[in-house]
């Protein structure tokens, strides 16, 4: 089985995340993409919504979407969320061929990740490149041992982000076009992102 892991805060999960997952799935012929909400990103220091709200929104977003799934592995483990630990645990539970999905902007920080050599021993990286050559230049600057384990997936730029959606909710701007209706209903019901 060929499995992609898409981690993130997903605060909130939006249509761009679905587009990214489907783009990678088609490009690499993956059987499944597993969304993994992070407990705590060790490289980012922003407060996030409660874990159970973020998990529930991702569950709602992927419900009924064939080939997409959700795992609470990082939330259950607690502490900082490290890709290498997640891939290692997921391979024990469900053996297969794995890709860890990330944006080309995150690739340049790979050296700061926990045990990147081990991560690239456990899986390949699917690097989403948003219609520029940034990914290629970063990959070419990496050690050959790393670069041969990276697949670049071109994807048009998506003009949305979770931070922009949060800001727009606070300002009372329309955001429902960026979200699945069930996710938007959940945000309203729980009162997320309101001052």
CATH architectural arrangement? 3-Layer(aba) Sandwich
Compute the gyration radius: what is it?
16 Å
Q: What is the CATH T-level topology?
A: Rossmann fold
Q: Spans with pLDDT under 50 lasting ≥5 residues? A: none
* Biggest pleated-sheet summary: 6 strands, parallel
* Arithmetic mean of pLDDT: 92
By DSSP (H or I, 4+ residues per run), the number of helices equals 10
Number of spatially distinct domains: 1
At the first level of CATH, what is the class?
A: Alpha Beta
Spatially, the strands of the biggest sheet line up as 3-2-1-4-5-6
Quaternary state of the chains: single chain
Give the distance, in angstroms, between the N- and C-terminal Cα atoms. Answer: 44 Å
Describe the structure.
- With 195 residues, the protein is α/β, with parallel strands linked by helices.
- It has ten helices and six strands.
- It has a single domain (2-159), classed as HUPs (Rossmann fold).
- The chain has helices spanning 15-28, 51-62, 73-77, 83-93, 104-107, 116-122, 134-141, 144-147, 162-171, 181-190, and strands at residues 2-8, 32-37, 68-70, 97-103, 124-129, 150-154.
- Helix 2 (51-62) links the parallel strand 2 (32-37) and strand 3.
- Helix 4 (83-93) packs parallel to helix 6 (116-122).
- The relative contact order is 0.19.
- The mean pLDDT is 92.
SSE layout:
Layout: E1 2-8, H1 15-28, E2 32-37, H2 51-62, E3 68-70, H3 73-77, H4 83-93, E4 97-103, H5 104-107, H6 116-122, E5 124-129, H7 134-141, H8 144-147, E6 150-154, H9 162-171, H10 181-190
Helix pairs in contact: 2-10, 4-6
């Amino acid at each position: 089985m060929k499995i992609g892991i898409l981690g993130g805060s997903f605060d909130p999960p939006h249509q761009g995340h679905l587009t990214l997952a489907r783009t990678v799935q088609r490009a690499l012929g993956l059987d499944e993409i597993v969304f993994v909400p992070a407990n705590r990103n060790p490289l980012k220091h922003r407060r996030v919504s409660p874990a159970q709200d973020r998990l529930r929104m991702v569950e709602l977003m992927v419900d009924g979407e064939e080939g997409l799934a959700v795992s609470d592995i990082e939330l259950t483990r607690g502490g900082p969320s490290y890709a290498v630990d997640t891939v290692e645990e997921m391979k024990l539970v469900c053996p297969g061929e794995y890709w860890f999905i990330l944006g080309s902007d995150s690739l340049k920080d790979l050296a700061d990740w926990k045990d990147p050599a081990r991560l690239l021993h456990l899986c390949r990286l699917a690097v989403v490149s948003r219609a520029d050559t940034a990914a290629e230049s970063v990959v070419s600057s990496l050690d050959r041992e790393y670069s041969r384990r990276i697949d670049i997936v071109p994807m048009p730029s998506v003009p949305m982000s979770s931070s922009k959606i949060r800001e727009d909710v606070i300002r009372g701007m329309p955001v429902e076009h960026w979200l699945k209706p069930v996710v938007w209903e959940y945000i309203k019901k729980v009162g997320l992102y309101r001052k």
